[in-house]
Amino acid sequence: MGTRKLKLVGSHEIRVRLGWLSRQRVYQLTNRADFPRPVAELGQGKIWLAAEVEAWCAERENSGVRQKKPT
Fold first, then answer.
1. pLDDT tens track of the chain, all 71 residues?
2. Residue 30, CA atoms < 13 Å, CB-side half-sphere
3. DSSP string, 42-69
4. Which UniProt keywords apply (predicted)?
5. Which of 44, 41, 16 is nearest to 31 (CA)?
């Protein structure tokens, strides 16, 4: 029987994925009702399942919601 590895992400990885948003903006997004719930809260912060965060990002990108600041 094979083991399944879970990929986890913290706020820094979410920040990078969303285009280097500020820590405050990532905090706001991760506290939204439509953002996935964290799987744990450690001393260094909350962690999420990467697949759930990716699905949330993809849904927002597909709906045309802008995430990155214009350059």
1. 667 888 999 999 999 999 989 999 999 999 999 999 999 999 999 999 999 999 999 998 888 765 554 44
2. 28
3. ETTEEEEEHHHHHHHHHHHHHTT---SP
4. DNA-binding
5. 41
Spatial distance between the Cα atoms of 6 and 49, rounded to a whole number of angstroms:
7
Question: Contacts for 35-40 with beta carbons within 8 Å, 24 or more apart?
Answer: 39/8
Which of 49, 61, 35, 47 is CA-nearest to residue 4? Answer: 49
Task: Report whether 66 contacts 29 (CB < 8 A).
Answer: no
- Give the whole-angstrom CA distance, residue 12 versus residue 14: 5
Domain boundaries, the chain: 8-63
Separation of alpha carbons 39 and 58, rounded Å: 20
